[in-house]
């Protein structure tokens, strides 16, 4: 399954009122459509929010009306958290509100995860209690675990309020939730390199009780995640449900999920772009490392124990990750390559 979540976009004036997909050249998807069966699938049951959490649960064969308890509990599981029977998890966005109360940025300027983690730790130190705990995640996406007395709070997702006046939570327990959100402003204001002004709590729910994929469907499964990034490369993860009944994305605890029976580590990646200098410069700035140009004209960026190579591609091609090099444990496998979704995995 390939789920191009969100790619439909919206009509744009600069594209003559068409969406990006309507004007894009998609020869591979066109070929797949001709060879396959084209239709529509209703993956959002009536009464449930139209989000990726509900949609992907349906796509994976889990009825959201039976298993969905909220977006936040799924993300809490990804952070390695397990909720007690009397606990719930809230998604905790770092957001930017204007002086007039407008939701300026639901992602709080996409903060660096290290800066965001420090901010969440400060919030935990000042606003955390015996029943309220802040847990850092990635960039603007974090979790707050509370008692289930706040389960009835009704909160609008911050991305649905972009450019609009922020609508504060309502319902039972909303006064306590709003108090936390307002109190966060004074804590976040102390971080000069943080654009976020407040936290926004939403998407709460209890620990989901879902059967393992293998027992639910009678087959084993593996997953790959490719996500385009503004670095000109991609974020790629390869996962396997093993053990099947305890599988979750590694999240912040990924180090404990590393297996080295076949490869030791990633030692290099190769990015291809039409403008080598521009991509190399941008990537080097992101990782705060210098670029090097070899005698053969190859641009590289050295990391702690690996290297990033940037090579030239066709003028019309988008920047992309083309190869990942991994240090083989069995030296007899050196030179072996595997292709996954157009990316080469090279054993070196």
Structure write-up:
The protein has 348 residues and is an alpha+beta fold. It folds into 3 domains: 1-37, no CATH class; 52-58 and 63-205, no CATH class; 213-347, Immunoglobulin-like, CATH 2.60.40. Helix content is 23%, strand content 26%. It contains 9 helices and 14 strands. It has helices spanning 20-23, 27-35, 52-59, 64-67, 71-78, 113-127, 174-188, 213-217, 276-287; strands at 87-97, 103-105, 133-138, 141-147, 198-205, 222-228, 234-240, 263-273, 291-293, 299-302, 307-312, 320-328, 337-340, 343-347. The strands form 3 sheets. A 7-stranded mixed β-sheet has the order 9-10-11-8-12-14-13, with helices on one face. Strands 1, 2, 3, 4 and 5 form a 5-stranded antiparallel β-sheet that branches. Strand 1 and strand 2 (103-105) form a beta hairpin. It is globular.
Report the average pLDDT across residues. Answer: 87
Largest sheet: 7 strands, mixed
Our count of domains comes out at: 3
Which value, in Å, is the CA radius of gyration? 22 Å
Structural class: alpha+beta
Q: DSSP strand (E) fraction?
A: 25-35%
Uncertain runs: 227-234
Helix content: 10-25%
**Count of helices?**
9
Order of helices and strands: HHHHHEEHEEHEHEEEHEEEEEE
- What would you call the quaternary organization? single chain
SS elements, strand count: 14
User: End-to-end distance, in Å?
Assistant: 30 Å
Strand order of the largest sheet: 9-10-11-8-12-14-13
Q: Shape, please?
A: globular
């Amino acid at each position: 399954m390939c789920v191009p979540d969100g790619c439909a976009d919206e009509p744009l004036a600069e594209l003559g009122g068409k969406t990006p997909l309507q004007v894009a050249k998609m020869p591979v998807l066109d070929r797949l459509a001709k060879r396959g069966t084209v239709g529509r699938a209703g993956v959002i049951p009536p009464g449930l929010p139209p989000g990726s959490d509900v949609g992907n649960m349906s796509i994976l064969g889990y009825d959201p009306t039976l298993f969905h308890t909220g977006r936040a509990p799924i993300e809490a599981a990804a952070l390695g958290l397990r909720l007690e029977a009397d606990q719930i998890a809230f998604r905790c966005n770092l957001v930017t509100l204007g002086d007039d109360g407008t939701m300026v940025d639901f992602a709080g300027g996409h903060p660096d995860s290290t800066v965001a983690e420090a901010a969440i730790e400060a919030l935990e130190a000042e606003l955390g209690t015996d029943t309220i705990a802040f847990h850092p995640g990635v960039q603007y996406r974090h979790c707050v675990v509370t008692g289930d007395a706040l389960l009835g709070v009704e909160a609008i997702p911050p991305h649905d309020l972009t450019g609009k006046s922020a609508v504060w939570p309502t319902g039972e327990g909303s006064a306590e939730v709003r108090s936390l959100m307002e109190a966060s402003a004074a804590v976040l204001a102390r971080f000069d390199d943080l654009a976020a002004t407040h936290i926004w709590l939403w998407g709460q729910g209890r620990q989901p009780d879902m059967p393992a994929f293998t027992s639910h469907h009678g087959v084993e499964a593996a997953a790959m995640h490719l996500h385009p990034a503004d670095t000109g490369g991609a974020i790629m993860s390869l996962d396997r449900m093993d053990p099947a009944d305890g599988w979750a994305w590694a999240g912040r605890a990924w180090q404990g999920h590393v297996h080295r029976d076949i490869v030791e580590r990633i030692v290099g990646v190769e990015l291809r772009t039409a403008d080598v200098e521009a991509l190399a410069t941008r990537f080097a700035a992101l990782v705060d490392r210098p670029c090097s140009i070899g005698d053969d004209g190859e641009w590289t960026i050295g990391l702690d124990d690996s290297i990033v190579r940037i090579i030239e591609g066709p003028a019309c091609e988008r920047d992309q990750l083309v190869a990942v090099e991994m240090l083989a444990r069995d030296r007899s496998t050196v030179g072996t390559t595997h292709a996954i979704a157009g990316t080469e995995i090279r054993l070196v």
